[in-house]
Specification:
By secondary structure, the protein is of the alpha/beta class. The chain has one domain: TIM Barrel, CATH 3.20.20.70. The protein is about 45% helix and about 10% strand. The chain contains 14 helices and 9 strands. The strands form 2 sheets. Strands 2-3-4-5-6-7 form a 6-stranded parallel beta sheet. A 3-stranded parallel beta sheet has the order 8-1-9, covered by helices on one side. The protein binds S-adenosylmethionine. S-adenosylmethionine binds next to loops.
Length: about 350
């Protein structure tokens, strides 16, 4: 039997491969292995979630960041970035609008902006919960200390997304300045899990200096950490960063990895990301058809959407916009999927 097919069958039975086997599975990617793993991933996802696709309203609360990640358009040293910060009232208004559109999860994402103290965030979380009955709140606000994560959880936050970015320390150091610590990133993930959040990790596909072995290590980490959510999307260069001349990551490889991750953990919440939709006009649909089951339309105020430019040409209107949900619903229906009004928690 073809080696890639053997590895896919093994992964589908054991939900586990060795790191070398993950690397081999990536290296042996072919039209045949892709269509085989896609079929298995779709079956695994369907057995848990049927044809449901969960939506999250993404609110980009601030592009002010104290960090200087080399790949990111809102890094602190980008002097061309037009900075903004939403007020608590603006954030609540976005949620109320989203609730009326059918969203039952709101993701508050932003740079590491010290304005957002625990008190301010706890107040925002409580107000969202009060105004949007039965909704879930996901935070994606980077690294904070244990006490802070605990305060936010006690105020009602349900989930936390913190991409690990890469599970290889030497690679992490090539993507981040010395002020950022690989060890701390992983400690944060462990802390979030211990507190009781539904936790998401993830990484960019095709980030500068990434090797097949780095991706294999990411997959092994995902298998062992067993996150509730996993955000992966292609790296896309931003013109005002050191990585401006590096090529974008591959949409096809991203979809293949979505299928692998679905087979590692059939009940994982797996978004077809904005970055995937940005590198390929069919990216979102292809992500869903590869095993993803979450889409995160943009619910930020229209006036700031173009300012949260993590990478060049980042989509924020058209199907990406929460206000165009009907279009997205039609597109999903055409490929056999249904967007549902639901918190979309992980199925245990
Ligand atoms: N500050 C928070 C954090 O660090 O987790 C959340 C915001 S951060 C901008 C969200 C994610 O955007 C990062 O985890 C990174 O993977 C992704 N990102 C940043 N720059 C990118 C780029 N050039 N291409 C693709 N994804 C990028």
């Amino acid at each position: 039997m073809n080696e890639a097919i053997r590895l896919i069958n093994k992964l589908n039975t054991d939900r586990s491969l060795t790191q070398d086997e993950y690397a081999k599975l990536i290296e042996l990617r072919s039209p045949e292995s892709t269509s085989y793993i896609t079929e298995k991933a779709v079956a695994a996802r369907k057995s848990v979630y049927g044809n449901k696709v969960f939506i999250r309203g993404l609110i980009e609360i601030s592009n002010i960041c104290k960090n200087d990640c080399y790949y990111c358009g809102i890094r602190k040293s980008n002097k061309n970035c037009d900075r903004y910060r939403l007020t608590a009232d603006e954030i609540i208004e976005c949620c109320i609008e989203g609730y009326s559109l059918g969203f039952r999860t709101f993701v508050l994402q932003g740079g590491e902006d010290s304005h957002f103290s625990d008190d301010i965030l706890c107040d925002i979380i409580r107000r969202i919960k009060l105004n949007c009955h039965g909704c879930a709140v996901t935070l994606s606000l980077g690294e904070r200390n244990e006490e802070s994560y605990r305060n936010l959880f006690e105020a009602g936050a349900d989930r936390y997304l913190l991409r690990h970015e890469t599970a290889t320390e030497s690679h992490y150091q090539k993507l981040h300045p010395d002020s950022m610590s690989f060890k701390k990133r992983f400690e944060c993930l462990e802390t979030l899990k211990k507190i009781g959040y539904q936790v998401g990790c993830g990484f960019m596909v095709g980030s500068p200096f990434q090797t097949v072995y780095d991706i294999a290590r990411d997959l092994k980490f995902i298998e062992e950490f067993s996150p509730d959510m996993c955000g992966i999307g292609p790296f896309i260069p931003h013109k005002d960063t050191d990585f401006k001349d590096y090529p974008s990551g591959s949409a096809e490889l991203t979809c293949y990895l979505l299928s692998i991750i679905r087979l590692i953990k059939p009940n994982i919440l797996l978004p077809a990301t904005t970055a995937l939709g940005t590198v390929n006009s069919d990216g979102r649909e292809n992500g869903i058809l590869s095993g993803a089951n979450v889409i995160m339309p943009n619910l930020s105020p229209k006036s700031v959407r173009k300012k949260y430019m993590l990478y060049d040409n980042k989509l924020s209107d058209g199907d990406e916009s929460a206000q165009n949900l009907e279009n997205l619903k039609n597109k999903m229906q055409k490929i056999g999927y249904e967007i549902v009004t639901d918190r979309g928690d992980i199925s245990k």
